[in-house]
Amino acid sequence: MPASPATTATALSAAAARLVAAGIPPDDARLDARVLLAHVLGLPSPAGLGLRLDDALSEAAAEGFAALIERRIQREPVGRILGRRGFWTLDLALGPDTLEPRPDTETVVAALLERLTPTDAPWHLLDLGTGTGCILLALLAALPAARGLGVDRSPGAVETARANAATHGLAERATLRVADWRGGATALGVSPASLDAVVSNPPYIPSATLPTLAPEVRAHDPVLALDGGADGLDAYRTLVPLARHLLRPGGWLALEVGAGQAEDVSGLMNAAGFSPPAIARDLGGHGRCVIAAQPPKKGGPS
After folding, report:
1. Per residue in 175-192, pLDDT tens?
2. Is 201 annotated as a binding residue?
3. Where does S-adenosyl-L-methionine bind (predicted)?
4. Looking at the domain covering 87-293, what would its CATH class be?
5. I need a labelling partner for 297 at 20 to 30 A (CA). Which of 40, 48, 163, 183 fits?
6. Is 181 one of the annotated binding-site residues?
7. Is 152 one of the annotated binding-site residues?
């Protein structure tokens, strides 16, 4: 007798076991298998699999699922396999020139939204190293009267960010262009003291650490978005004084930081003359965002 076709439940179990054998943690393996099978079956979310556990998979679905699992076994991230990643309230396209957004980066969005009140004010924002546009577009989606500029050194990243802005109806309020923040305000086309917030998730991995990163990061995220120089702080040494020049009194600088970097980046902000920084923690309890205000002008109101 021919073998019975796999059911949703048996296919998920077998796929998760293969992923665990490839070195992927069990909880991640089970979730990855569910996300990939839901994609193959055209379901809007993995939750829909719960009603289909006893359903037999078609031959085409089984083959398609097996192909995606094989890519994951090779340590290609699920987001890269699907070509998209959820971030904040948005579903964002990824490209080869963009860092894949992580939940940790949502800490930056949350910290800034706590401070940009009222939400219907016409805030002016700048996102340095915008990548997919994730931070800027999440902020614009939550701040209906805000406008923002996102810049990146990579033309491919800017193209992806523009596509994401268009998908979410934010293109009219998001200007996205190729520029290098190392060229200062002139290169960015931004006037001094004109911004309400500057945000960035800059490269912050120490150069010597890059070869030790997980293969999902090392082989799939662009080095340009990862390499932070010898101590991981090169970008911050440029970003902090640049933001000090571009922010209005009372404006906010919000920067994502890597493990153990929050105090060093806070020190750079203090040295540049910002108001005392605060450190926002991610869901794992790690200091993930350092945020500080531009002080009021001396002798005048904020």
Report:
1. 999 999 999 999 999 999
2. yes
3. 129-133, 152, 181, 201
4. alpha beta
5. 183
6. yes
7. yes
pLDDT digits (tens, 9 = 90+) for 250-297: 999 999 999 999 999 999 999 999 999 999 999 999 999 999 999 988
Q: Is the peptide bond before 206 cis (omega within 30 degrees of 0)?
A: no
Taking the CB of residue 260, how many other CB atoms lie within 10 A of it? Answer: 10
Domain-by-domain residue ranges, the chain? 8-74, 87-293
User: 248 vs 66, 195, 276, 282, CA distance in Å?
Assistant: 54, 6, 16, 27
Whether this model's pTM surpasses 0.90: yes
**24-63 pLDDT tens trace:** 999 999 999 999 999 999 998 899 998 889 999 999 999 9
Is 178 within 8 Å of 97 (Cβ atoms)?
no
Q: Is 300 marked as a binding-site residue?
A: no
